[in-house]
Amino acid sequence: MNPIERLRALLNHMNPTEHLRALLNHMNPIEHIRALLNHTNPTEHPRALLNHMNPTEHLRALINHIYQIEHLRDLLNHTNATEYLRALLNHMNPIEHLRVLLNYMNPTEHLRALLNHTNPTEHLRALLTHMNPIEHLRALLNHTNPTEHLRALLNHMNPIEHLRALLNHTNPTEHLRALLNYMNPTEHLRALLNHMNPTEYLRALLNQMNPIEYLRALLNHMNPIEHLRALLNHTNRTEHLRALLNHMNPIEHLRVLLNYMNPTEYLRALLDYMNPIEHLRAFFNHMN
Q1: Which has fewest Cβ within 10 Å: 29, 65, 158, 250?
Q2: Gene3D superfamilies from the xrefs (predicted)?
Q3: Model pTM?
C-alpha cells in the first residue's frame, strides 16, 4: 500500500485495508467509512451519491426491494416510499395514489373508479352506502338520487320508472303494480285516491265508463254494463236492476212506472197475452 494513503487512513481513524478498498473502487475513503458505519454496502453508497440521493434512503430502497430512482422520486413528492411502490405495482400514477391516501380512500378502489371513468369520490360514496359503483354511476348519469336508485334495484324495479313515480308523488311500489297490470300509473293512483280497486278502475276505463259510476254499480251488486245502460237511458239504476231481476225489459219497466202502473202486474198481463191497460182496469175493479 502507498505509505501516504496508509498515513491518511490512520489520520482518519480508518482501517488502512478499507481505505485501500475505497481507492480501488474509485470511492472517497470518508464516504466508504460512512457506508460501513451505516452497515451499508460500500458499493451501493457511491451509487446513492451519484444519484444525488441520501445513502440511508438508498439503503431503505434496497431493503424494500424498490428501484432507488423511484424511491428518490417518492421522497421528492413527500410520499411514503412503501405506498409509492404499491402504486407502481398497481400500475397506478404515484401522485394519484397519494391523493387517494389523503382522501382516506382505498387506492385499489380509486384505480377501479378511474378505469370505469367515474369520479373516485362518487365511487367511494357508493362503497360507503354498500352500493355497486357502476349502479351509482348510472344513477348520477340519470340525474337521480343514488339512494333512490338503490331502492329501485332492491325492489326489482326499473330505476327510471322509480324516478317517474317519485316525480309524480306516487308510491313507487304502487307505480310498479300499475306497470305489471299494464295500467297507466297516473290512473292507478287516481283509483287508489278514490279508494277503488285499480283493476276495477281499469275495467271501467276499458268499457269507456266513468269509474265512479262503475264503483257505484259494484256497491249495488249490479252489473256495471247494465248500470251504464241505465245511465244512457236516463233511468233509475235501482229500477233498471229490478226489471232485470224480474226478467223484464228495463225500457218496458220504465214505461210502466211512467204510467203509474205496478211493473209486476204489467208483466203478468204480458205473460197472459193481455193488454196491460185492460189488466190494470180489471185489477182496480177487483176483477180477475
Answers
A1: 65
A2: Leucine-rich Repeat Variant
A3: 0.29
**Residue 262 falls inside a structural domain:** yes
> How many structural domains are present in the chain?
2
In a domain, 160, yes or no: no
Is the model's pLDDT at 200 over the cut of 50?
yes
Which residue type does 50 have?
Answer: L
Match 362518487 to its residue by C-alpha cell.
122
| 250 within 8 A of 267, measured Cβ to Cβ | no
Burial class (CB in 10 A: 0-12, 13-18, 19+), 257: middle
In a domain, 76, yes or no: no
The three grid cell numbers given for residue 5, joined into one nine-digit string: 494513503
Nearest Cα neighbor of 81 from 103, 52, 106, 58 is 58
Smallest CA-to-CA distance from 239 within 215, 269, 271, 263 is with: 263
pLDDT in tens, 19-41: 556 545 666 666 666 665 566 66
Task: For residue 174, tell me if it sits in a domain.
Answer: no
Q: What share of the chain is helix, strand, coil (3-state, %, to 5)?
A: 70, 0, 30
